[in-house]
Structure formats: C-alpha cells, structure tokens
Amino acid sequence: xxxxxxxxxxxxxxxxxxxxxxxxxxxxxxxxxxxxxxxxxxxxxxxxxxxxxxxxxxxxxxxxxxxxxxxxxxxxxxxxxxxxxxxxxxxxxxxxxxxxxxxxxxxxxxxxxxxxxxxxxxxxxxxxxxxxxxxxxxxxxxxxxxxxxxxxxxxxxxxxxxxxxxxxxxxxxxxxxxxxxxxxxxxxxxxxxxxxxxxxxxxxxxxxxxxxxxxxxxxxxxxxxxxxxxxxxxxxxxxxxxxxxxxxxxxxxxxxxxxxxxxxxxxxxxxxxxxxxxxxxxxxxxxxxxxxxxxxxxxxxxxxxxxxxxxxxxxxxxxxxxxxxxxxxxxxxxxxxxxxxxxxxxxxxxxxxxxxxxxxxxx
Length: 363
Ligand SMILES: *[C@@H]1O[C@H](CO)[C@@H](O)[C@H](O)[C@H]1NC(C)=O
Description:
InterPro entries: Wnt, Wnt_C, Wnt_CS. Ligand for members of the frizzled family of seven transmembrane receptors. Probable developmental protein. May be a signaling molecule which affects the development of discrete regions of tissues. Is likely to signal over only few cell diameters. GO terms for molecular function: cytokine activity; frizzled binding. This protein is an alpha/beta fold. The protein is 39% helix and 18% strand. The strands form 3 sheets. It has a 3-stranded mixed sheet with strand order 1-3-2, with no helix packed on it. It has a 3-stranded mixed sheet with strand order 5-4-6. A 3-stranded antiparallel sheet has the order 7-9-8, with no helix packed on it. Bound molecules: 2-acetamido-2-deoxy-beta-D-glucopyranose (NAG). 2-acetamido-2-deoxy-beta-D-glucopyranose binds at residues 88, 93, 95, 301-303, 305-306. The site of 2-acetamido-2-deoxy-beta-D-glucopyranose has 8 residues, from loops.
C-alpha cells in the first residue's frame, strides 16, 4: 500500500512536471522579454537559461548572441507598443498582462488574424531595432548597410552613407524568432503543424514589411546648401509607418486552409478563391473569437469598461465597441494648461485650469 502510493505520487509529480513544461513551451513567448529587466555583463548569459519565454534553441542563441538580447527586447517592446496603438480603437486592443510569459494571454492560442498581426509586428520590431543597432555601431557582428546603389539614385551622388543594416537584421531576426516554431513540437497533430506554419509566415511577413520599408535617404552638402553634393544611404521607415502598413495587411489578412502535401509538407490555400497569398500576406486559420464578452476559456477580456466615442460610426463608436450593451457617462475633471503667455525672455507661463469632460464607458 505504502509503496503503491509512493509510486503513484511519483507518477503524479512527473505528470505535473510534463504538463508544466509542455504548457509553458506552447504558450511562453520571447515577447516576454519586453517586460523584463535585462542584466548586463557576464550574468546575462545566465539569464538566457532562466528565460522562461525562450524555447530551447532560443536559449542557445541567447548565449551566442547575448549582446543582441537588448535589441530583441527593444524590438518586442516597440512591437507591443505599436500593436496597442494600432488596435486602441478596436474591441481587442492588444492588451497585455504583466508577469505573464504568454504576454497577451490565452487569446493568442486562437489562430486568428489578431494573432497574425501580433507575430508580424513583433518580428518587424526586432528587424528595426537590430538594424539600427548595427548602424549605430552597437553590435560587433554588423555595421552599415552594404546595400548596392538602388535605381533612381543618380550616379553623381555619393552612395554609401551608413545605412540601416537590414540584411543582417533580417537574418538574425529570422534565426532567433523562427527558432521557437521549430523547437516546440508538442505533437504531430496537423493542427499544431498548421499553427506553426501560420506563425512562421506571419513572422516572415513582418520582417519583410520592415525590410522593404527601407528607402534611400540623402543629405545635401556643398557650397551654402546648394545641394550639388549629396550623400545617400538606406534608411528604415519610422515604426509608425511600418505599423500602419501591417495594419492594412491585417485588414486584408487571408484566411487559409492547411492541406497536407506528402508526408511532411503543409500547403496553405486561401479559403476564398480570389485571394492570393504573397510573402507579405498575413494569414490566419481560425475566425476571431467574440471579443465583446469576457470569456475565461478563450482569454477574451471583453469590452466592459472600455471607453467609446459617441460621435464615431467606426469600431470605436459606442454602438460597436459596447456591442449594443450601451454605455455610461462618466464626468471627469481634468487639469489643463491655459492662459499661456510669453514672458521676456524666454519662458512661457501657463495657468492650470480645471475643466469638466464627459467620458463614455461601455456597460
Ligand atoms: C484594453 O482593454 C482592456 C480590457 O478590455 C482594458 O482593461 C484596458 O483598459 C484597455 N486599454 C486601453 C488603453 O484602452
């Protein structure tokens, strides 16, 4: 009896262990780096092993590229920030939870178009932050872009000012970010395989949109600003522009069906005949959950308590945002700067004026 219960105790322990490891493997995410404080110096390598958000290969890559992790973190942070900005007026607003290794919660288990956007924007974030780190001389492994002179840049201009190193950043981001999808192999179920493929494609779309946002930028020199001498280089767009581009990719995201081809290959075909998948398409497998009502099972937070805009007919309007449940009016007092005046010399002095504003909040 005693030994029996010990055996079963051990069995249960092992079972719990397996469950914890597997579950964290499936849901944990390198994005969680965004919420962490990175240690610098020798201990940073130690941190690689303790980083619960990393997959097995990502831990190894973290050790090899310890100096890159700051930029992976910055990239994730910028990606998450941009996601929140782009979806601030939507029912799903890209909300994150602190101290959660899944970052966005359970809702990203659903292979929805919102999930697709999140993967893409985070991948784009890493490309941008690594490319800029290269250009700024912050990483030994890379430097100025070596992109050849593009067409349209006159040969009379100097080509090759120090540009964002998108080639290197793309390569690194691919290796690091996609490692997660290659590692986690919870089962051979075709559903999991399809989801991996979805993640890989959206990662790639994000990286490509970032890389392709790179454009020649020139600076004039020459006698008193005559601009007869110019130096040009490749420069990435600001992250807002990349975010806008990805949001429009989200708006035209393509629902796909996974079909087996041979034993290992998986083909994605668009559900709608007229859709054409390109390398920068965002693709998704499942329709979005109902983001209206809090749901523990799906991880949806619901729109109760969200602010809405009574004057808008868009997704932020009280009708759509509150899903027809109606809204409350909240009176709020805010303090604003007012009666600002210039004082010689050289300050601006303002008063603090309270004013009442109405806010509309979903029931
Ligand atoms: C995003 O949505 C969540 C859940 O509905 C809410 O708690 C949070 O305040 C929202 N964030 C913003 C910036 O509106």
